[in-house]
Amino acid sequence: MARITAGVATSHVPAIGAALDLGKSADAYWAPVFKGYEFSKRWIAAAKPDVVILVYNDHATAFSLDLVPTFAIGCAASFTPADEGWGARPVPVVEGHPELADHIAQSVIQQDFDLTIVNRLDVDHGLTVPLSLMFGQPQAWPCRVIPIAVNVVLYPPPSGQRCYNLGKAIRRAVDSFDGDLNVQIWGTGGMSHQLQGPRAGLINREFDNAFLDRLIHDPQAQARVPHIEYVREAGSEGIELVMWLLMRGALDARVREVHRFYHVPASNTALGHLILENPAEPDGRGDPQA
Ligand code: DHB
Ligand code: FE
Fold this sequence. Notes:
Elements: E1 3-10, H1 14-21, H2 31-35, H3 38-47, E2 51-56, E3 71-74, E4 78-81, E5 94-95, H4 98-110, E6 116-118, E7 122-123, H5 125-135, E8 144-150, H6 160-175, E9 182-188, H7 205-217, H8 219-223, H9 227-234, H10 242-249, E10 256-266, E11 269-277
Parallel strand pairs: 1-9, 2-8, 2-9, 3-6, 4-7
Antiparallel strand pairs: 1-11, 3-8, 4-5, 10-11
Helix pairs in contact: 1-5, 4-6, 6-10
The structure holds 3,4-dihydroxybenzoic acid and fe (iii) ion.
């Protein structure tokens, strides 16, 4: 059977991708950022996921503002790194897992979540920067990736509760897949940041760290926090954090915190990163409090 073994959360700041691609990762500004991922790279080399379900948001790259799905799943065999205005990042093409993606779509839609099926998708920094942070600069990405795109760009975004519940539905879908796969789920974006307006540059360390604590230990309480609270406390782009709740919903109620990292600044953001493992003995039911 397929099994979700771990969750990873990480910011997806585009300047991190540029720092890597332009050979600046050892610069004084960036070195502390990449240091926070040294353990993670060793951990994932040992964990060897077959598939990563990668929850991210498209930044008006593949989906123009003409058409913005709230939740979308990439079912294609491969996904090309997008040209976001200065050429595509020099990173490998992302290989999908159409069989598992189709199964998740079937299962999750039958659980009453309206996923948009995407059969062609260019993936932007929201998806490729987390891959770079976790895997470095390989010739080919070492696992398959199923993109789950969440709208946090155009008002209204889905609630944290909706994202958390979708994570649970995805968990049920993976648990019922007939195939022996080691699956991870990643949530990306965040932490506090605002890119525009009078509050541009906003950082809220207190909110961010309370969010990390609650995401790990009391995700149900965190799921109840309304989106306006994210905007107020973590800035307009802090709403990206609801994607971390989607990841968390797919894990067990009790998880093992394997790694936690928080650093300010990374471009305009507070950077956060977590690795959470499901217990070795799966309970097969996801969060028993659901
Ligand atoms: C920045 C951060 C983001 O998450 C993003 O999507 C775009 C820009 C930034 O800090 O510059
Ligand atoms: Fe973003």
